[in-house]
């Protein structure tokens, strides 16, 4: 069965599951659920994870359900995914902008505080893991896929790997703050 999301038909089951996940993440970001001891850096990681999931989740689901046709660079190529990608980017920027303003308003001193050793170690660890995921993805996209695939499949795989790398970075950062980071 088909539904409509931003004027684009999608499967209702996929959209419903995505909506449930988005509402769960919004509930986690809700002011009552954020404990007073949650650091500003952890809150920004939650914000990035939420924005990435909310914007690029539907884009990637749509590309998986209904891949675009036509070869890139050829007359008659389907360029509608570029508009969907642009919409996802703009919505993500709006979410991040509003979220950062809200977080800064909630804790202005924490937002201005420099990174301490723990924050730097968590950032280094999570960024290093995300870089490895991104590196593997770009090797796949740049060295393997040109011989097996083409066009939009390569572009969307690259976007998917960038999203996965960011999710790894934010997820590991959140996990390190929650669990406690140990050298």
Instruction: Give the count of structural domains.
Output: 2
Major sheet: order of its strands?
Answer: 1-2
Mean pLDDT: 81
Shape: globular
Q: Which class of secondary structure composition applies to the elements?
A: mainly alpha
Order of helices and strands: EEHHHHHH
- If helices are DSSP runs of H or I spanning 4 or more residues, what is the number of helices? 6
Task: Give a concise summary.
With 183 residues, the protein is mainly alpha-helical. The chain is 74% helix and 4% strand.
Structural features, described:
There is one protein chain. The protein is mostly helical. It has two domains: about 1-65 and about 80-115, no CATH class; about 115-183, no CATH class. The protein has helices spanning about 10-30, 40-65, 80-105, 110, 115-150, 150-180, and strands at about 1-5, 10. Helix 2 runs antiparallel to helix 6 (about 150-180) and helix 5 runs antiparallel to helix 6 (about 150-180).
């Amino acid at each position: 069965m088909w539904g409509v999301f931003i004027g684009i038909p999608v499967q209702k089951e996929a959209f419903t599951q995505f909506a449930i996940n988005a509402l769960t993440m919004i509930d986690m970001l809700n002011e009552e659920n954020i404990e007073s001891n949650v650091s500003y850096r952890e809150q920004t990681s939650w914000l990035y994870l939420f924005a990435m999931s909310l914007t690029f989740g539907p884009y990637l689901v749509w590309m998986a359900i209904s891949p675009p046709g036509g070869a890139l660079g050829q007359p008659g190529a389907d360029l509608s995914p570029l508009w969907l990608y642009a919409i996802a980017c703009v919505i993500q920027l709006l979410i991040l902008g509003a979220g950062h303003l809200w977080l800064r308003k909630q804790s202005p001193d924490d937002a201005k505080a420099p990174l301490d050793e723990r924050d730097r170690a968590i950032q280094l660890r999570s960024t290093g893991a995300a870089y490895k995921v991104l590196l593997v993805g770009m090797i796949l996209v740049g060295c393997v896929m040109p011989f097996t695939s083409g066009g939009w499949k390569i572009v969307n795989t690259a976007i998917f790997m960038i999203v996965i790398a960011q999710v790894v970075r934010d997820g590991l950062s959140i996990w390190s703050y929650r669990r406690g980071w140990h050298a």
